[in-house]
Amino acid sequence: MSLKRIAAVTATAAALALSSLSGASAQETLKLGISAPMSGAAASWGLGFEWAAQQAADKINAEGGIKVGGKSYNLEILTYDNKYNATEGAKVAQTLLNRDNVNYIVGSLGTAPVRALQALSERKGVLLFTTAWGKSVKGPEFPLTFTQINTPFEVLPQLYGYIKQQHPDAKSVVLISPNDATGQDTEKPAVATWKSLGVEVLSSDWYERGTTEFQPIATKIASLNPDIVDFSAAPPTDAGAILKELSVLGWKGIKSVSAGTSSSALVKTAGDSAEGVYMGLAADYDGPSATPIQRELNEGARKALGEPLNVITIGTWDAIMALKAAAETADSLDPKVIAETLPKIVFESSYGPTAFGGADTYGNPQQMLLPTIVTQVQGGKVVEVKRVNPPELDKRLKN
Amino acid sequence: MTLYIQLLLNTLQIGSVYMLFALGLTLIFGVMKVVNFAHGTFFTAAALAIATVMPPAMYQLGLPVWAAYLIAFVAALAVVAAIGIVVYQFGFQKFLRDLIGSFILSIGLVLFLNGSYLAIFGGAPQKVPPLIDVNLSIFGAYITGQRLLLVLVAVGVTVGLYWLIQKTKLGLSLRAVAEDQEAAMLQGIQYRRVALYGFLIGTVLAAIAGAMMAPVHAITTVIGDEFLIKAFIIIIVGGLGSVGGAIIGAFLIAFIESVGGYYFDNSTATIAMFVLVMVVLLLRPQGIMGHAER
Hints:
The structure holds 2 protein chains of 2 kinds. By secondary structure, chain A is α/β, with parallel strands linked by helices. Chain A is built from 14 helices and 17 strands. Chain A has helices at residues 3-26, 43-62, 86-99, 111-124, 152-166, 181-196, 215-224, 236-248, 263-270, 292-305, 315-330, 335-341, 359-362, 391-398, and strands spanning 28-36, 66-68, 71-81, 104-108, 127-130, 145-147, 172-178, 200-207, 228-230, 254-257, 278-279, 347-349, 352-354, 356-357, 367-368, 372-378, 381-388. Helices cover 74% and strands 3% of the residues of chain B. Chain B starts with a helix and ends in an 11-residue tail after the last helix. The chains are: A alpha/beta, B mainly alpha. Chain A binds chain B through residues 37-41, 43-44, 46-47, 81, 179, 205-208, 210-213, 215-217, 219-220, 223, 237, 240-241, 248-250, 265, 268-269, 305-307, and chain B through 3, 6-7, 10, 13-14, 17, 114, 118, 122-127, 135, 142-144, 217-218, 220-223, 225-227, 229-230, 257-262, 265-267, 269-270. Chain A: Belongs to the leucine-binding protein family.
């Protein structure tokens, strides 16, 4: 090879190396993980979760990415199916944290799989946003964990209080909960809240996720003839199946799904018997209280997924916005620094300006402060019947 | 009294589905001596086929519910039979009477087929309208017309299967192979052909169960897996490979689920089923109607 040729090859290689280096600095990517049920009865939550996260990532990428230390970082969403159980949750945790080396989980769904994920994320210094309802996933011992939706301590007093206010003659309730960590974490405060409202708990029963035949459960509920049936943390498909069986047995009463998120899954399975159901995690993002971005996202979700967004599914959008705001405020991508910054900032969520708080309840300010929205299925659609802003947020926004 | 009739009706409707599902599983084990963990995926395929074919037949072709369902039912059986033939020819045929090999193969099939269903149909539950949208009252107890139809079909299919096994030449071959494969071959029975027929009958039974459950249950890509665990409990209790055992086991498990679920709760009833399996395995390992290995 001649000297001239060697020089040409070396120059080309150097140019290529330089161009690839400059490209890396302009287009570095942050991987954001999601652990959610993408199949089974709770799949609609996981699908919406992923979709909302992708919308947030697309918007931030289009606006130039997250800007930290003079660099811009684009976002990439990695979603894995945790099948709403601890075993799959542990597998997803290993995949996200050890194989994909993700430093930020922007959405995790289901208390059991989230506990499996949290055991690893806290040890590896990974920031974790979660919808898990349990009080057990929060506290000073979990400094990197943040809740991205309202949980039983925020939802139940408002939901049950509204039901009791609308139906003052209601004296008795039967609870039916899925027999897993989510159900157990919901059932205790649910029973306590009903009792505090003077409603007698006739029975609080459990069923296994994956149950296919709900007639025995419905027969028992109908024979107790309660004024209210509370489906607690049951996903809409299971609650709908029980409601359908209850209607076959002729039971007519007040129906509440604390973790109820959408009318479509309920109406699909329960038909007309879904009418009048009160829900704690649904929202009417087309209604008068919705923000412009919520309306836009809701419209997009309806086209892409065939159903509107709800309080759970919009949670990944809010988590990504919180992550961006904290990283840019702290000018750091270190998950620990971001976790220290999150409780100090006010950021723009889909609901408007919000912050993290809840130290009085959980011992650590790691609860996203969002309005509690009580909805009801009316004419097959979700209608907002009550909205309460957290007093702590109002105080923060005034200061 | 009404309560007892309701519990009996609950047992009948739950037991009918379990019976249809478990019959196919036990038949395949009896003839091929393989434990088919992929049986639930055949059930799922049929339910998904109904959910795919029925809505366009109703809303785009304008067909009445029963006609749309009939077309979807035939399509579901055809799809599942086709999957069954492929799975047998390229898979199980090579692992006949090989418990470990067939176990690994069927687990792989579950992963492959469930992953494919999820990729094709998505994870969101689907629903199709019932064929008969009425509630019936029997001495004060209630059952939907759709569920009653399911019970009648299950009884009809079971009687038909019993007739096929007891009264036809194919049934005689199936029984002979299940009893002693080598002796059956010495009598001129073509084992591989009989095994294929047995496998196809088993998959079609799963397809009928899936197609019948589609109008009464939210259809997901894992719906069959949820029935599979119960079906395994049923055939272990009833006796692996025993058709009579599958029928008895199905209604025994349905009885525990119905009565236990009423007097205690669903989770306690589930625990009771597993306790029953342990008791049966300790006292009569071959199951209620099974034959002890000689």
